[in-house]
Model the fold of this input.
Amino acid sequence: MAENDIAIEVRNVTKSFKVYLDKGAQLKERLLFRKRSRYEERKVLRGISFDVKKGEAIGLIGHNGCGKSTTLKLLTRIMYPDSGSINIKGRVSSLIELGAGFHPDMSGRENIYTNASIFGLTKKEIDARLDSIVEFSELEDFIDNPVRTYSSGMYMRLAFSVAINVDADVLLIDEILAVGDANFQTKCFNKLREIKAQGATIVIVSHALGQIEQICDRSVWIHEGLIRAEGPPKEVDLEYLDFMSRRVQEKNRDETGGAELSAESGGKRWGSGEARITSVRSYAADGSEQNAFRTGEDIRLCVEYTVKEPLEDAVIGFGVFDMNGVQCYGTNTRIDKIGGLSLGNSGKAVITLKDVKLIGGEYTIDLAIEKGEGIPVDYYRQAYRIQMLSSLGDAGIARIDHTWDIQR
Amino acid sequence: MSTIKELYAYRQMIFSLVKKDLRGRYKGSVLGFLWTFINPLFQLIVYTIVFSKILRNDIPRYYLYLFVALIPWIFFSSSITVGAASIISQKDLVKKIYFPRMVIPISYVTSCFVNMLLCFIVIFAVIIVTGAGVNFLALLTLPVIMIVEYIFALGMAMIASAVTVYFRDLEHILGIIAMAWMYLTPVVYSKKIVPDRYLPLFNLNPMTHIIDCYRTVLYEKQIPDLTALLWAAGLGVFFLVFGAFVFNKLQKHFAEEL
Done:
């Protein structure tokens, strides 16, 4: 690789923060309570190195607190590394804090000048870009009104338009594409692609892996201050999702101590009580217990129950709801024509959900045992919770398999 | 060198910060921009009463003698006292976005400087109205004196603003230092009455020479002592380089300290 192909060079960068337990910022306090200025050193980055080629787009991924935002801040030179070096070639524009230095009493136009000047543009350069900034922000009619009269959406649009029109060689982005409505987001996204096509280098920090997969050539997964994996987004993101689902699962188990159910647990339940659901567990296709799954995986639900009085013609059912309470699916043994169940002893029902195409998000599951023509024996609302993880940014409830065939 | 190049690239930011500061400073007050003049005028009246009516002296036209020294002094002292808090007052910017941090003290000192230039309009008005007159040849050196003072003030402001981030008391300590410094500089009195054995000490103070030069040009209507001006310029440049060095060292952790 030729030397001048590299736009960003990061070498063995470490960074730690002092977390003061009780800091005295004044002379008096410093002198009197010298012992108090104790601090803990928290190592956020433990030595990371990577290169970004000119025109390449990379995504930094990792869970909260892993150091990816710190890395971005080091790249923008808001902070400096404790050791190691960072070299960036060309003009840097950051979409980290939009609208920095906006003055509410000044007009949109004046704020464009102030804000763009903070990116290091001269008046001449701003003059040349003014029209495209205003046009991109779609604020033509309001541009001479004071910014304080803007809605927050308008404010962000203006700020984003300035930042993206700087014509930077290197663009640093932190969770930015949550700007404005869906239309404007699409517009921003297209603009990013355009900028990339023009040869700009882009670094994105995001939790929306779908966005990263769409725009980045490479993902860098930072875990506890070190690079854990890097490579094509599709591969690294999957690895990361796998890791996260295991983590979420462990955390959930810690919180609930398994999924033992009791009458007091969160959800509402009612029914005549001849039989009761006692526990719910979920397993992945490979048999490992977990409750976070990737879209498209099989999920096996094991529902254990105890029987106090034997039941003839019992029906077991379940329903899946998203976080808005919308039922995504529901069925029971009667609908599925399993026939009347006679429950005499305690036992368990295993429900295998094939190829679950629910999009990313949290879901709750209702479980029910009924008798006869739908008389609840034990109806348990929100008995269980699962999490779906998806790297795509698709929308709706469930993914519909589809193919594209574009003819031109 | 690269710092200078970068600052040049960010000149528009300095310009817009100065503009914002000058426009915003007196926003909402009834007299608005007039405060730029009223404040020094009242100081002038008080000092004139105290030092020519109560503590009598034999300096003719004492008000003018004082005025031509007081305005430059106010520029210097406000540069370091206001400048000290400059980084802290812009912490939202500093924490969020990259730009050469020196832009902040530079724009604060520059806006104080512009204020001084505006006050000079009043000085010239007084000179003309009272018929004191000017020496045009000597006036040519005035911009040089101003630039020397600007350089020195900027150097001090850089040190003050950077250190204040880590040590907030400095802002208040500087208020006391500025007052002491004023009385240790021949602003309200003449350098001639300083006892000989203290003179070397006074001569170390660049402000002694700078104030003296202003006075020579505007009050005595003479071309100032160029060696004194050169000495002040040398010290000014030294402090600017030293201040920039200190600032550069300290600015790396601004974002974490704020």
Remarks:
- Residues 2-257 of chain B form one domain.
- The CA atoms of residues 59 and 65 of chain B lie 8 Å apart.
- The two ends of chain B are 28 Å apart (CA to CA).
- Chain B touches chain A through 26 residues (CB under 8 Å).
